[in-house]
Structure formats: structure tokens, C-alpha cells
Amino acid sequence: MELKNIARGIAALGLAASLVAPASAATLNLTGYANGGPSSVSVASPSYSGGAGQFQGTLDGNAFKTFCVEIGETFNFNTSYTYSIVSGTTAWTNPVYLGLSRLVTWLAANPTFNNTPDKSAAMQSAVWEVIYETSGTYDLLGGTFKVLNTSPAGTRAAVNTLNGEWGNINTTLPTLFADKLTNANRQDFLLTTPVPEPEAFAMMLA
Fold this sequence. Notes:
3-stranded antiparallel β-sheet; 27% strand; single chain
């Protein structure tokens, strides 16, 4: 994609996000993994080896699913925490914001890539890939951030399959924002919110 189109996408996302003002705080209580398991994954860099996948629980009492966006912090299941809701335009650098918005939009249209423990671990790895990769190219098996061969075979197979989808992910028109739930002492999480007028947004990208 040409740089001018990337810049257009970032600007469009920022303008659309300015039309939405989410609540500044919310109560989060995660109860477990959304797709069974968990499966596990080993990654670098940053280094992590352990359970991975989409979480489920409640946000302000409503059913909620999310992914981790911060390797290195922890939280406990079945425990309520107060989180700040931070707009993606503030929470992320521009490339990360656009990349995550595309990824979550693509996943919403392709849920079978997240319907088993191994696939969910691969999808969590993809979220981390967008956040931590610094090479400018997404590749779950190479670059700054990558999934290691010491990961379980099932996770590696799901990662290999998902890794072939970056071409589709990177050309996805975002219809979901990638915002952030943040707590200074606990793991931060992904929050998706709908783009208010996708048709107008598509015209801004044209």
C-alpha cells in the first residue's frame, strides 16, 4: 500500500474516532478463555511463554471478549478491576492503531480463525505482532516479534495458517476501532468499538 493511502487511513480513523467519546472508566471482570483451552505459545520479543487466547467476561456487566495488549503484566480471573478507556488514536502509534483496527475488523468477518484454543492463541499472537513488530512488515515467524518453534504443534499450525492472511488483513477497510482498556497495575486489554459511518469512512480512504 502506498504511503499516502496509509496516511489517509490514519487520518480517516482519527477523524471518525473523534466522533465517538467512550466512557472514561469501566469495570472489567474476566472469567476465562473464550474458546476453551487455553492453548499456549512461546514468543519473542518481548519474551513470553504460556497460555494465550481470547478472554471472556464482562465489561460494566455486559458480555465482553478481548485480547491482551501488554506482555509483562498480570491479572486474576473472576476479579473486578477498574480500567480507563483510552481512544486508539491516543493509546497507539498511528501504524499500530490502523493495523489493530484492520485486524479486529478482519477477524469479525472471519471468526473461524478464532474458534479453537490453538487458533485463538495464534490470533492473540497476531495482536501482539501488530503491537510489537518494528520492521514495518507483519510476519508471525520472523522479524522483531515472532512465534518460536518451541510453541506447541497445534499453535504453530494455526500460526502458519494465519500468517498467510496478512495480505487480506492489511487491505481490510476498518469498520471497528481498536481502543484500549488500561490499568497501571494490571494487564491492558483490547476494546473494539464500531466505526460510526463506515460508508463515509470508505470514501475518505478512496
